[in-house]
Amino acid sequence: MPELSWREREALARALLARFPGKDPLTIRLPDLLRWVPELAGFADTGTKPTPRGLEELQASWYRLYSEKLAAARQHSLESFECR
Fold first, then answer.
1. DSSP annotation of 60
2. 46 with 38: CB under 8 angstroms?
3. Which residues pair with 43 in a beta bridge?
4. Rounded CA separation 20/58 (Å)
5. Residues 5-64: pLDDT tens digits?
6. CA separation (Å) from 56 to 70, 77, 80, 83?
7. Are 14 and 30 in contact (CB under 8 A)?
8. What domains appear along the chain, each with residue ranges and CATH number?
């Protein structure tokens, strides 16, 4: 697994989605996000801190992936229901 850093927002968003699959990213406080990211497997950028804007952008990326996952699950449920 490649090392993660604060600059890798998309990769961090995917890692957060995998670690917290049922959490709505918009319910997460930025201080919690700041604490959780360094705890992710493969995170190696411990010497720097993101800006509040950087955290918001990470949260937005995570939310986009989360929303896509929800939409795909809903579509799958609808298709399963229609097949009955």
1. H
2. yes
3. 4
4. 14
5. 999 999 999 999 999 999 999 999 999 999 999 999 999 998 889 999 999 999 999 999
6. 21, 31, 36, 40
7. no
8. 9-82 (1.10.10)
